[in-house]
Amino acid sequence: MYQPKMELTPEQLSILEGAQGETRAKMMECVVRYGDIFNAKRLLPLTYKTGHLVTSFGISMLTPIYPLMEELIQAGCKAEGGFTADPRPMEFDNCSANPLEKLVFKKIIYGRQEEYEGMLKKVGLLSDDSFSCTCYLPEVGNAPKEGDVIAWAESSAVVYANSVLGAKCNRNSGVLELFMTILGVAPEFGFLTDEGRKADYRVIIRTSKAPEAQILGSAIGMKVMEKVPYIIGLDKFLEQLPDDDTVAYLKDMGAASASNGAVGLYHVDGITPEAKRLGAKLIKDNAIEYVIDDAEIERVYKSYPIMWKHKDKAPQRAFIGCPHLSYKQLLDWTNKLEAGLKDTGRKKLTCYTVLTAAPAVVKKFKATPDYDRLLATGAHLASICPLMYADNPLCGMKRLITNSNKLRTYTFARYAKDEELLSILVGKERIK
Ligand code: F3S
């Protein structure tokens, strides 16, 4: 048997020794070994039981996952509080694909999607509507509160839960987060400790207006990497939480910082819960200073490579909503697209445009007349993960454009600021 370095409770030790069966013992060993690598002192009980899984896709080539899931099911392992999961990869009605792409998606890449979703249900997936990376939005309702210990892995959800909700979560890996959710424990290290939540960087915002959230997050992520930034001077541009625009801003900034770097926690002076409670006490004595002004935002924006083969050609597809849009963002984009088209006198957007949001947000939006207004612009509304769509040679080589820095980072998609993207989509501006 594996000899743990950390201290375990008698119950945890008995699980490791096999008292609850071989499968639970193996899961426990994985979690304990994981904690031991990071010198965790012990396993903490999860105080918020609903998990969130990063692996939502039935990729055919991910062969080890299927027998593993089968073993969990056979052993009767199920997450006590259930879990939500990242978005699905495909939704052809709302994000079209040609026959070859469909074939590749359904038979080759995501050939085991249906089977995998069936498995997820058996181990605790909450519902068919549980597929979104923004599980913490009110419509989805998977939102731990301040101080809760959780074990998620989706980087954009982890950074939101830690920073905006004040929960305690490490940047775990896929599958390990499922084991921890089922066992109801997480090793105590990193963001689960007070010391691990202190800031290594003091980021000073000196811009003339609110910086684009996705570029600010990118700038911070590329500078601090996996360290914790304490952001000063951003509060003058933001209303207090839970204002809808602030929620959306912090969601997008965090996702960009987590993907352009590896940020798992940030504090915003005067806004996020721990910063409001502890203020400058959260900043380490030897914190490094990073000043962000208009020139720095522009420098970072200009540094993004354009990976298109034909850089001056029009985009073929636009994605808005990575991470998934909030309800307010969906409404704002509908208004902006409609007004923009009116302005340019065009009837439809210049390219196939997909807005993405959680199924519950989409459902709520579809029940309003605003949905028809959005469709009238020619846009489509889906709940997929645009990255899962684009992360293959067939779709990835299309000229994709997006206002998501995460999508830009992981694919050949070209980044555009919100205003720039709007101008291109309504035909006011051409690609330069
Ligand atoms: Fe969400 Fe997929 Fe983007 S999981 S953050 S929509 S890459």
* First-to-last CA distance: 62 Å
- What would you report as the Rg, rounded to the nearest angstrom? 22 Å
Let me know the largest β-sheet. 5 strands, parallel
Strand order of the largest sheet: 11-10-9-12-13
Helix segment tally: 18
Envelope shape: globular
Which structural class is indicated by helix and strand composition? alpha/beta
- The low-confidence runs, each spanning 5 or more residues with pLDDT under 50, are none
Q: Find the count of extended strands (DSSP E, 2+ residues).
A: 13
- Percent in strands: 5-15%
The overall pLDDT, averaged over residues, is 97
Structural key phrases:
4-stranded parallel sheet; alpha/beta; 5-stranded parallel sheet; 18 helices; about 425 residues; globular
